[in-house]
Design a protein that fits this description.
Pfam families: DUF2340. The chain contains 3 helices and 4 strands; from the N terminus they run ββαβαβα. The protein is an alpha+beta fold. It has a 4-stranded mixed beta sheet with strand order 2-1-4-3. Strand 1 and strand 2 form a beta hairpin.
């Protein structure tokens, strides 16, 4: 899909906007077992110019500067994973999907690969978390309640 590949006549939410003006939801996960998740809505986000590392840095800036994310500041976020695409099926796990790690975890080291090259488009949901916490939860997915 290129920046001109959008349908303004019969748009789906995923194709109704060009890649340079996408809206994506980033699900900031503080704790997997306690299901502490808060969303960041990135509006008019340029998926053609931004890399995974750019998105991580932009999200960390929001967390550090917006007072509503104060409880989420004590986690060192280092991983992004596609949670769901617009019009796609969602996982039964309310916190994160465990499927397709190789395809859906974004490469933080490859700054040449842009977000649209991962299949990210308008209305995609992405999870932001600490990778080691994810591996620990995935090995023993036990949810706890306060």
């Amino acid at each position: 899909m290129t920046s001109m590949d959008y349908d303004s006549a019969e748009p789906l939410t995923s194709t109704g906007r060009p890649l340079s003006y996408a809206t994506i939801t980033v699900r900031v996960i503080k704790s997997f077992p306690y299901r502490n998740v808060k969303n960041i809505i990135m509006k008019n986000y340029d998926l053609q110019k931004k890399s995974a590392k750019d998105l991580l840095n932009d999200c960390v800036q929001v967390i550090q500067n917006d007072g509503s994310y104060r409880p989420y500041r004590n986690v060192e976020y280092d991983c992004l994973k596609i949670y769901t695409h617009a019009h796609g099926s969602k996982t039964v796990n309310l916190v994160i999907n465990f499927e397709k790690d190789k395809e859906q975890i974004l490469d933080m080291q490859n700054e040449d690969k842009k977000l649209y090259q991962y299949g990210i488009e308008n209305e995609t949901e992405i999870s932001l978390f600490k990778y080691n916490d994810y591996l620990e939860f995935k090995s023993k997915p036990e949810e706890k309640w306060l």
